[in-house]
Design goal:
single chain; alpha+beta; Tetrahydropterin Synthase, Chain A; 4-stranded antiparallel sheet
Length: about 190
């Protein structure tokens, strides 16, 4: 025996591992690379989210709103409601509805027009009898259901449009207001 045989530290017959090719070596090198790229992507995602949250909080100043409360008094772009002159000479008009069992209608209305319209007062006064007849026939052609309070805005709009197109020539009614509108069952 030689000195090399006596000191067999490897424990017997040695098999040459380098001589047989391994088919699993491609998977063993690919898996760590995939895990490495997944960890880098996850780290980048966490970093981006953290930077975005911090930046948003700095720009938002801790969550407080940056817009000031704007009211009609402080906003220069909100116009004031115009002030109109009023025509109240029509007086109280009593009529009936078109229902099969008629209802009594008592209406007193105010017509509003532009303050700087000098001809409106003259024209409305000159057509006072036409206005009273119009009001009477208008409410005479309506049912009690059409004159309910939830339809009042539509009724005012219809009156304004009819006055401006059929009765008045040079002036325009801007608003119709009811000082009294009673629909009473007879």
């Amino acid at each position: 025996m030689s000195d090399d045989d006596a000191l067999d530290l490897e424990g017997g017959d040695s098999v040459n591992l380098d001589s047989s090719p391994k088919k699993t070596s491609g998977l063993r090198t690919l898996l760590p690379n995939l895990l490495k790229f997944a960890a880098i992507g996850l780290g980048a995602l966490i970093f981006i989210v953290t930077v975005a949250v911090i930046t948003f909080n700095i720009l938002n100043k801790g969550g407080r709103s940056q817009t000031a409360g704007v009211t009609a008094e402080t906003d220069p772009y909100v116009g004031r409601r115009p002030q109109y002159a009023s025509f109240t000479s029509i007086g109280q008009v009593r009529t009936r509805t078109i229902d099969p069992t008629p209802y009594a209608v008592v209406v007193d209305m105010v017509l509003q027009y532009d303050q700087n319209d000098k001809n409106a007062q003259t024209e409305l006064t000159g057509r006072l009898n036409e206005l009273r007849d119009f009001v009477r026939s208008f409410f005479n052609s309506k049912t009690a259901r059409e004159l309910q309070p939830d339809n009042e805005a539509r009724v005012k709009q219809e009156i304004r449009e009819a006055l401006n197109t059929r009765i008045l020539d040079s002036s325009k009614v801007r608003q119709v207001l009811f000082t009294q509108l009673d629909v009473l069952q007879m």
